[in-house]
Amino acid sequence: MKKPLALIVDDEPDIRELLEITLNRMNIQTCCAENIARAKALLQQKSFDLCLTDMKLPDGNGLELVDFIQTLPVSIPVAVITAHGNMESAILAMKKGAFDFVSKPVDLPVLRLLVNNALKLSDAGSAKERQPRDSLLGESLIMQAIRAKIDKLARSQAPVYISGESGSGKELVARLIHQRSSRSDHAFVAINCGAIPHDLMESEFFGHKKGSFTGAVSDKTGLFQAAEGGTLFLDEVADLPLSLQVKLLRAIQEKKIRQVGDQREIPVDIRLLSATHKNLGDMVRDGSFRQDLYYRINVIDLHVPALRERPGDIPILVDHILAKLTDAGKQDRPVLSASALAALQQYHFPGNVRELENILERALALHDGDCIESGDLSLPEAVHDGARRQNFDRDSGTLEDHLGKIERKAITLALEDNEWDKTAAAKQLGLSFRSLCYRLKQLDMDG
Question: Distance of alpha carbon 383 from its chain centroid, rounded?
């Protein structure tokens, strides 16, 4: 079996030798370069499986090498070696596409974990190609872009901050990043930070030793250790108290934790993903969320759109949810009438996909026959009555044509109500300004 080949880029002979010895003992071949120019030449001559580069090099910055590697036809995981405490450089490198970072002085156990995770990527890539299509449904352009970004993020160790409204699918996105990553064989641990009492948070996150406080009758493993080798997903991270935010920041930066009642630090190997429906930027400004932690967890931001921003995806979601609720066809699956589907596509969906699931589950219990009508959806009267008043002429075109006419009329009325102020019209329609502009372009109304 062919040995992996790693490129080591550092101008200090002692560091190069240490890294070479460590990787050789891991049965990894190595090539060394003392500067960026030599590294670029080697990258064009040989096929590498991994690159480790110092940030400060005689002829430039390691970030330049990160940028160069991103332009190569074959994806190579690159990890940067930073000066101790220089987290800004590490974060910037990961934003540019670096796989991970390690701080000087190099902690060899941490380095070995990093190298093993990087080398798993090529094996994971072919396995993921054999997996069935993921369950993040929707063919709108915005959902296609999110699926592409998930695939890219799965090849990194960078912390990802997933933003979006409640019920929009943030945990599903986090699970997909994990499932498509080299960590998929290990645990995905999800925790709702708002559901843990503040006085128990430190113990829940980091664990505790027996007798460390009243009620600690035995040793307890924390969430960080439970997620060892895998992914830790912190949902509603905005609900963390400031006292725990400090400890979380240290754990992320040092890649070590200390259990309550213990003096020893334990190395941990986890990928951190976080999410909230709140605006963390506003919380940083008002002092309720630490700015340094915000920048550390928000290395890459992934926004999940609200359901109302992608009404064209509703038919696909309806079909999937009904199949799930009727146990994939083991019981008769009803269909939605044109008026019911139109009502759903006009609805604001404050609860997003989660609310759509609840609406359809209720409709299955209330409907008669083999068709769900708009009245069975139990939407606010103004919504399904309005949809019922729309006369669907079978000779006027397809359902898509009919729904397009409804959407065009709703947008036109909103623009007229607001004297063609697009910002105000978008607010009235419950859309973002960008979503309205996209719909105008799709409907050829942006002239």
Answer: 33
Q: What is the rounded distance in angstroms from the CA atom of residue 266 to the CA atom of residue 273?
A: 20
Q: For position 359, what pLDDT does the model report?
A: 93
Q: Which domains does the chain have, with CATH numbers?
A: 5-128 (3.40.50.2300), 138-305 (3.40.50.300), 307-390 (1.10.8.60), 396-447 (1.10.10)
Cβ atoms of residues 383 and 345 within 8 Å:
no
| Among 160, 413, 443, 194, residue whose Cα is nearest residue 311 | 443
Percent of the chain with pLDDT over 70: 89
Is the peptide bond prior to 105 cis by the omega test (within 30 degrees of 0)?
yes
Per-residue b/e over 145-182, b at no fewer than 16 CB within 10 Å? ebbebbbebbbbbbbbbbbbbebbbbbbbbbbbbbbbb
Give the helix, strand, coil percentages of the chain, each rounded to 5.
50, 15, 35
pLDDT tens digit string along 282-309? Answer: 999 999 999 999 999 999 999 999 999 9
pLDDT in tens, 340-363: 999 999 999 999 999 999 999 988
Q: Which pLDDT value is given to residue 386?
A: 45
Contact between residue 201 and residue 244 where contact means Cβ atoms under 8 Å apart: yes
- Which of these, 377, 373, 382, 371, lies nearest to 359 by C-alpha position? 377
Tell me, yes or no, if the pTM score tops 0.85. Answer: no
Q: How confident is the model at residue 390 (pLDDT cuts 50, 70, 90)?
A: very low
Taking the C-alpha atoms of residue 129 and residue 132, their distance in angstroms, rounded to an integer, is 8
- Which pair of structure tokens corresponds to residue 36? 């960026």
Q: Between vectors from CA 7 to CA 103 and to CA 156, what angle results, nearest 5°?
A: 60
Q: Could you give the 3-state DSSP secondary structure of residue 256?
A: strand
And the tokens for 28? 């990894």
CA atoms of 132 and 127, how far apart (whole Å): 11
